[in-house]
Each structure stands twice: as structure tokens, then as C-alpha cells.
Amino acid sequence: MWDGYFSNGKIESLTGELKKWYESGKIKQEIKANNGEGYRIDYYENGNKEEYKKYIKGILNGEQLEWYETGKIRKQEFYINDKKNGVYKEWYENNNLKISAQYIENLRNGEYFEYYENGNKKIEGNFESGNGKLKNYDEKLNLLEIINFKIDKKYGEYNSFYENGNIKIKCFYDVNEKCNGEYTFYNEDGSIFSIDEYENGNIIKSINYFLEYWNMLSDAEESIEKNAYNDAEEKLNKALKYNSKGSAAYFKLGNIYFERYKYDKAINYFEKSIEYDTSEPAYYFNIAAANFNLRYYSAALDYYYQAANKYLDLGDRNKALQCLDNMKKIDSDFFLVNKLLYKIYTDNITDKENKILRKNSGTGFIISNNGIMVTNFHVIKQGEKISAYIPNKNQEFECKMILNDQSNDIAILKLLDYNDTDIYKFKFLKNEHIKAGTKVYTIGYPLNFILGEKPKLSDGIVNSIYGLNDDPRLLQINNSLQPGNSGGPLFNESGELLGIVLASLNAKLFFEKIDILPQNINFAIKIDYLKNLLSLLPESGEIFKNASKVSQVSLQNLVEKITKNIVLIKCYTKE
Fold first, then answer.
1. Contact present, 271 and 287 (Cβ < 8 Å)
2. Domains of the chain (ranges plus CATH)?
3. How far apart are CA 134 and CA 147, in angstroms?
4. If the chain, 575 residues long, is cut into consecutive pieces of 10 residues, what is the mean pLDDT of each piece?
5. In 245-354, which ranges are continuous DSSP H helix?
6. Is-above-0.85 flag for pTM?
7. Exposure string over 327-355, b if 16+ CB within 10 A, otherwise e
């Protein structure tokens, strides 16, 4: 209900007083003006002020204020002729400062700060008439982004960073806030994952350094098998141009020089392998062997000891014993020999009945907040104990199998003591909507014993909606897959689930009569076979209907969201 009047219809010269009321009879809005100069006050129904606007000649001028319903101040800003000028501040309801800035003619000018509700710095920057730079931090004060601006629009170089401080993305924005030029995406270790070329915000060229690296590595391996070492060396050096921190490439180069009896050079390459990956025991073993051949016995003993400990960490006791035997041949009385001997045998004697070893690994993906997880049956079939390692949480959860379809190689597991409301909820695409030529992606843990326990992305297309011999259960895809990828999700650019990845070597489960499988052809189990199995679960309705909304989300953001669901499955069995 309104009460009051205005004279002079033009906004710049309004005169009068007007009030608006809630149905409860409490005032909702009050407007007062004299020849276009006055104010407007909005009220919450509890009587507290919500907003105060001051006008001169019918446009915003002077101090403007906003409050929370509790009566606490929310925002203060100043206008001159309808443009922000001067101090601008916002507060959280707990009275902590949220934003502190200065403006001139609607453009940021001077120091700019934003804060998290706990008081930690979120954003800092400095501007001159809208030109400047912002630094964005997470709540642990790790630098997330550096953004440059021109007239308060993103312009020039943009950088984002991993939590470890290494650069994640580097690109350039034009005056229209569109990417132009190189867009470089880095791995967490600082190596390049991909470089895209943009023009007016559109990709015109793309090089996936990760895939090029592994393709070149695969080609080099073929040359090594043919003893074509010069050719292999050339390919490995090309691979290192795509990933200068590629430990596997350095390791293979070291092996080439080892075979040529050039042990000093082999050691240099093995040391580079260890520099970029300290977890692989073979790197330590081979550098020990090279030192032994050069009669550097102290170094050989040390590296054999380190290799043995790495093998024990992986549960490979036999390899650890091999290291021990090599150490004994050098000096059976050396103190590290006895130390390793005690570690190998004492650990196994005291836990002989329950000793478990790592047997197999693969990929799985979580599809519900309470830890329902999907993988291939062959990944977990021999596991007496199954666990799921989640890198972004740095946690390992024990799992139990709740459903399986062995004929279609599907297993449904449950992570124990798991709950996470922040996971990505897949939408299940119907089989009839899957077409040849569709761009598809998978995330998994290929060759985790070499590449490490961080998820890796692979892209490709659907080559056919049928598998070998026109098997209707399978999709044929050309994604680059390795052992360890099995069990991962196959999804499209919209984040919709198309199937479960099945590496080509494991596709023999479906084709027992075929002795040889073509190379560079991979498969995925169609999504309907998973849906049929999931429909037996009580929570299936919740899983199918609550898909995450990903409209207008970039591929990078989509991958980041889905990566939270991807787990490294570890299977153990009694010795």
C-alpha cells in the first residue's frame, strides 16, 4: 500500500513524499524529494533499514548504505552524478571487512582488497583509473591467480597456480576479455600438459604435450625392441621436448647407454629420472647396477638399499631380496646389508599370517555422496583387500564389493566411512544418444608405478558404437590408454557419462576366441549395462536424478570437478 504524492513528473525535479507498507502495517519504503533532491530508504519487515539511497537531480549522489536484516552494516559507497567515486567498503555479518576499495568515475583507483570471512586476505591489488593487477589467494594464503586489467576489464597476461606454487595456466586476454594467442596448461610438477592457440576466444590449434610425450615414448620403445638405439635416442630426446621432467624418458635413455656399456652417461640419465620421480624403485636399482659396473661399490650399496626399500613400499619382497643378494656380493658385512636383512625378514616373521602385498591397481570413479564407486570387475577380482586412494584428499579408504556383473566386467563398490557432498554428479547419457565422432575424455591412473599417483586426462573420439565383431556392449574409442586406465569414466564435453573405460589388453575378456587385438584401439563398456546394475541399489534413484549442472563450464573446470571423483584402486592379496 502506498501513501503520499509527487508533483512535477520529471525525475530530475520530483517533489513530494511517498511511503510503502508491508501487509503487516510496517513501513517497507520511504521516499522523500524536493525538486529532485532527496533520499529513498528501504526497510526489512522487522523495522531495520535495508538500504539508503541519496539523490540529487534524480540521480545517485553522496553516501549510499546497505544493512543486514540484523541491523549490521553491509555496504558503504559514494557516488557523484550516478558514478562510484571515493571509498567503497563491504562487511560480513560478523563485522569483519569483506571489501575495501577506492573508485573514480566507476573505475577502481588505488588499493583494492577482499577478505575471507575469517579475516584472511582473499584478493589484493592496486589500480590507477581501472588499470592494474589483482592477486587471488585461497584461505591458506596460497596464490591462486594473477589477473591484469585495463579499464577494469581483464587484459593482458593471466596466470593461475597450483597449491605448491607452480604455474597452472598462462594465457593472454584482449580488449574484449577474450583469449588470444597461446593458452598453456601446466602439470603440477611444472611441465607442460598442453598448449592451445586462441584467436578471438576460439581455439585454432592445440598440442597436447602429455599425449605427444607418451606417444613418442611408445615409438622409442618399439625402436629399442628392434635394437635401433640411435633411432630410440632421437625419439626420447624429442619426447623430452614435450616434457623436460619426463622421468620415464630419462630412464630409457639411461638404459640405452647402459646397454652400450657407457655407464657414466647412464648414471647421469638415471639420476635425472630420480630427480623427477623418487618413487620408482627401478631407477635406483639400475643406477646401483651402473655404479657396480664402474666399481663404485659404496654408491652401488647405497642405491641397492634405497631400491630395496622402494620395492618393499610396493609390497615386492622378491625384488627387495634381489637387491639384498646384490649387496651381499659387494660386501656381506656392510651395515646396510644387515639392516635390510632385518627389515625384510623381521617384518614378515612377525606378521607372517596376515602379510598382504599390493597385487593390482586400476581406476574407479565415485557416483554418490556416500561413496558408491564404479570400476571394472577384472581390476578387483583377485583382491582380498581393496582400497581406494583419493589424491585430492590424500586419503585411502577401505572398500567392499556390493554388486558385480562379471560377464560385462563391471563392479560396484562402497567406500567405507566416506561422505562427501562436493563430488561431481554424473548425468547418464542414454546409449541411443551416443554417436560416432563424439569427443570423449577419461581420467585415470595409467602406469601409476611410473607416472605416479596423480590422475591423468586422455582425450579422443568415439570411433564406433560397436566393439570387435560388432559387439553391441562396447564403444570403440581412440583415447590413449595404458594399464591402470581400466575402470575410469568415459564422458563427453558436457560432463555426461557414456561408459566405463576398458583398456585394449583387457578387452580379451569379451573376445576369448581372438588371439590378437589390433593396436591403438581401445574400448568402453556402454553406460546402459552400468545403469542396469545400479538399478538394483536402493539409492539408484538418487544417483540417476541428481546430476551436476555444468552449462557454460570450461573443459578445464569440468575436468577439475570430475577429478574429485576419480580414485586409484589398490588391491592386495595374502602372500
1. yes
2. 2-209 (3.90.930), 246-352 (1.25.40.10), 358-574 (2.40.10.120)
3. 5
4. 46 77 93 88 96 90 96 96 95 96 96 96 96 95 96 95 94 92 90 89 87 90 91 93 91 94 95 94 96 94 95 90 93 82 56 51 91 93 87 89 91 92 89 91 82 87 89 90 88 93 57 47 90 88 76 84 93 71
5. 247-259, 263-276, 281-293, 297-313, 317-331, 335-350
6. no
7. beebeeebebbeebeebbeeeeeeeeeee
